[in-house]
Amino acid sequence: MLAKYLLSFTQNPKNDILSGLTVALALIPEAVAFSFVAGIDPLVGLYGAFIMGIITALFGGRPGMISGATGAMAVVMVHLIQKGNEVGISLAEPVEYLGLQWLFITLLFVGAIQIMAGVFKLGKFVRLIPHPVMMGFVNGLAIVIFLSQLGLFKESRGTVPQWLNGLDLWVMLALVGLTMGIMFGLPKLTKKLPAALIAIIVVACITIFGGLDVSTVGSFIRDGGGSGLKGSLPVFQTQIFTFIDTISGHWDLILSTAFLLAAVGLIESLMTLNLIDEMTETRGSGNRECVAQGGANMLNGLFGGMGGCAMIGQSIINVSSGGRGRLSGATAAIALLCFVLFGAPLIEQIPIAALVGVMFMVVIGTFAWSSFRILHKIPVADAIVLITVSAVTVWQDLAIAVLVGVIMSALVFAWKSATMIRARKRIKEDGTKVYEIWGPLFFGSTTAFNSKFDVSTDPNAVEIDFIESKISDHSGVEAVRNIANKYLDSGKQVKLTHLSPDCKALLLKWNPEFETIIEDSVEDPRYYVVTNTLDADV
Hints:
The chain has helices at residues 2-9, 13-38, 42-59, 71-90, 98-119, 131-150, 166-189, 195-209, 217-223, 251-280, 286-303, 312-320, 326-341, 344-347, 352-366, 370-374, 380-395, 398-418, 446-450, 474-489, 501-510; strands spanning 67-68, 154-157, 160-163, 309-310, 422-427, 433-441, 461-471, 493-497. The chain is of the alpha/beta class and 538 residues long. The chain folds into two domains: 7-367, no CATH class; 420-519, 2-Layer Sandwich (Transcription Regulator spoIIAA).
């Protein structure tokens, strides 16, 4: 086990360290921007990115995957923080920024929920997400990343940000284009250096030594209301335990937000894990990632971080730059903390245009361009799912989009399976009519199953053979019971053959008299029925 962990830590230290530094630079504006979205101090977002990054890098289920403060979770936090601040103002002894303390308390519950998801091995269910949903998610995500970067083409003028124009716009576009050009061309010359890091350094040198007046990381933080990047080490938030009594009457908000944050975080993290698995042709552990994410979020609550989950854009930057080991994620997290502690003046001079160019290249690399080519070749239902998931990801958020896509795919599967049930009919020499059922019998196919029989005109002896069918759920068992009772009520003989032991037990539980019409055979299939109506003593 130790040897396997050490092997996952790094196989190429140079690539992991350089790619980690690149990711650290890209993490700063993202963490700051999402802090503004949530309505909290940028340092809280940076601390959250550090804690999430270091814990998941060392203990997570996917080497090379980057975690930090994310927009999907920031949007969920907003209402909780605002409500907490309102309550803080209304107290007899007003508490400033009480919403932030509530967030820290909520993150403790978020972490516990995510750890339980890993303990009960719920992470494996990400493997059930259909491919059209995955492609739609990737495309929608690329569009979201692209749209989020457009806001950086604005500058603050008074109270309302205005789009850049004139020379400022052309300089911004030129720097973004230069960054993208370096990232596109450098790998064709050499792959020994991470193209994203070199592009950021080159563009930063041009703006610093050229004296160009452009938007930088420092100006971005100050325009958003922050005081700067400089900070200290995260400290233990002992005060949160003194604010628990302020939650009285608001536990429903705390717990509902915790479950929503946990769900959004796990869905985004496990989807990212699946995507990085495909890119690297390796396989991570979803359950281990759940536990690591939960532990990191609990530490965020205890040490004043914003909380978060896996970051798809930064993970793709890392993998594309050669970061495949745990060292890359650990380097990114430690470098981010070092920037906050020691390198703030230097990092604040990095032009936003360089980071926008990097994210634009991520968009190009993330978008599944092949979906345009195959859209007219795949089934119409799959195409609709793909487009719908992409649209909902942009319109709402990732978690809702994936849920919608999975439900749509499940309904399509149920519909197709419902049309597959067949009944071959033949007459035996003794006059018995045999129905040979073929295909799955479940809630979606019971109507089609019932339509196969003609009780009034059938002969006095009927046999229903399930050798080529599988009864999947309670609805299927109920359909068999109802059709058998119809024949018995009409005074006809009916025999049920090749049922599984589970089906027989369920039928005999409801109708003990069926013991005379159920035939046992060595050829009976063995499978379980998805139902909770069977008592343990049956």
